[in-house]
Fold each of these.
Amino acid sequence: MSFWYRSIFVLFFTRGFLLATWSSRGPAIDDAIDLDLVSFGWYVACLSFGSIIGVLVSERQVEIMGSRNFLFLTSTWMGLALVLLGLTLTNGEVVASYFLTFLLGVPLGMADYDNNLEATRINNLSAKNKVPVLHGAYSLGVFLGAGFVGLSIIF
């Protein structure tokens, strides 16, 4: 197993873990910014809107920056957006929370595009289909991220 494959595996896993830390906190987010059901639906949709934008702008950016630099940028952006989102939620800042959730979605979509591009490249060079294991890494990240949040709440 090559370093390249292991690196992409870790990126799939990390993206899943990060998303789970946000999505599993829905009730706490709702309590923090006190939204009605429709407003909370729009809040959650901000992540999807950001992800769609991220996917749409990714092709050209990967060509310009190269995959390694692009993934460094998106990973840094995701972590920063999640931290800033946590701060705005703690302070009950509704508009900033919407905006930062959108800004969290953008690099998630961008990273998803590039991770799948790299998975396809790996798959084309491999005798065996590697994509299901890489997507399994994402699912494992979601599972463990949700478990991590659950344990954090208990302790």
Amino acid sequence: MFKTEVSKSEYLELIKNTNHRKALAKLRSSNHNLRINSENLRICQYCSSHEIENEIHFLLYCNHYQNIRKQLTNDIKVKYAGFESLNLGEQDKINNVDTYVCKKLGYFVYEALQIRNEYTNGQIHNKFQPIVL
């Protein structure tokens, strides 16, 4: 999805936590290490879906983040009872202008990226551990 006007995005003002704001800005500007650029290595390694690890998969579908995603959606459903019945375009309109949703989304992206980095670092660290027989 593309911006249609040149202006500062509202979420930059709405999300006060610097780490959360940076994480969401990096995701929105493709300044991340999701596996969408390496053509032969694009499949998500964090779940068994065999889907390309792009921003949509990361935000909405990857099972690796389902616990914190469930908390995010539960929190949003408290404020917007019909949120699950909205289509993706209508949901996007809510998260672009609502302070509560922007803050929750910033938290989710930050935490999910932390989980992803811990998992990645653990995999690399464990890869070089000596085998004890």
Amino acid sequence: MMNVADRIQNLRKSKGISQEELADKLGVSRQTVSKWESEQSVPDIDKVIIMSDYFEVTTDYILKGIETQKQVDKEPLNANIFVAIATAFNFIGLIIAIAVWYAEQDPMAFAGGLGAMAIGSMSFGVGLACSTQNVKKAKQLFWMINIWFLAFIPLSFLYNVLFTGFIAPYPVFGYGHPIAFLAFWLIYLATCLSIVCITKMRRTE
């Protein structure tokens, strides 16, 4: 059976935040939160009240484990669902932009592709605001995957404007200098891998 320490830890993890982030919300140190979760101490009533508002539960739930009917009926919304939706839209948007430009060589290819990617990114942002589970991990997962899609078109556009004279959503080979083409891929890989590494480094407990 869960005790106060377990409930605080479960609420924190369901919100997708670290002990340090919860401590900032409550105006205490990370060590204080760690002591609550390891049963070395219990939070003061004023901190319990702040937590109840932040986690949208009652103080009775935190202290005694008593759930209201609203809490029982409420189904937690997993933020990872919106990562999948956003990734699908971003991938489809990239494919649309490339396919349309390849077939028609029309700069308007950007419109359809970027439109789909905008929908994907916005749906992720809205979904994240509504989610109650895995929020922090979802943010990390989103950037680790989607940076590969989101960075491709802007970098391709810049390369083509500078070296090929085309306005295309992918680097056009054969019209620019081979070294510039190679440099594009190196910059693209370096940019994406840097974001992935930074995202991994920012992972906390």
